[in-house]
Amino acid sequence: MIDIIRSVVITCIVSAAVSWFLTNFNIYFWSGFAFITVLQFIGWFAFSYYTKSQVETAALEFQQSLVSEISKNEIMLPCTFCDHPNIVPISVDRDNDFVCEECDKINSVYMEIQAVAQTQPVDTTKGIEVK
Ligand SMILES: [Zn+2]
């Protein structure tokens, strides 16, 4: 509440000062006062809209970089030319090409995702029951 009163007082002081200055140019004090007050409100809305959109853009960029970091995994793959093992960062949102550390040739990573049935691990601590 104190903040609102302070803002209104500052707005009125600025409006009064500027409109007092404008009376030198034969502009009526109260019309100048009203005009400057409206101008300050418009300026404030424009400023807060701009700040808000900047913050939203930064948050979105941060979120996108976070998603890209999370989706990254590393896998050991042998080069298709020289069989040298390479550690390759794997990401699901782009092509996963890599240059072999040994022979400098470009390899492509082919990924296939498929569903398989779940199996139950065999409990080897129990003996086999023969009927
Ligand atoms: Zn190689």
Describe this structure in words.
This protein has 131 residues and is α+β, with helices and mostly antiparallel strands. The protein folds into 2 domains: 2-69, no CATH class; 72-108, no CATH class. Helices cover 48% and strands 15% of the residues. It has helices at 2-22, 29-70; strands at residues 72-78, 85-91, 97-99, 106-108. The strands form 2 sheets. A two-stranded antiparallel sheet has the order 1-2. Strands 3-4 form a two-stranded antiparallel ribbon. A hairpin with a 6-residue loop joins strand 3 and strand 4 (106-108). Helix 1 (2-22) crosses helix 2. Zinc ion binds at residues 79, 81-82, 84, 100, 102-103, 105. Residues 79, 81-82, 84, 100, 102-103, 105 line the site of zinc ion (ZN).
The secondary structure category is alpha+beta
Tally of structural domains: 2
Bound molecules: zinc ion
Give the CA-based shape. elongated
What is the percentage of strand-forming residues? 15-25%
Number of helices: 2
- Major sheet description: 2 strands, antiparallel
Average the pLDDT over all residues and give the rounded result: 89
Q: Spans with pLDDT under 50 lasting ≥5 residues?
A: none
Oligomer category: single chain
Percent helix range = 40-55%
Spatial strand order of the main sheet: 1-2
Succession of helices and strands:
HHEEEE
Return Rg in Å: 34 Å
Could you tell me the number of beta strands? 4
Distance between the termini: 84 Å
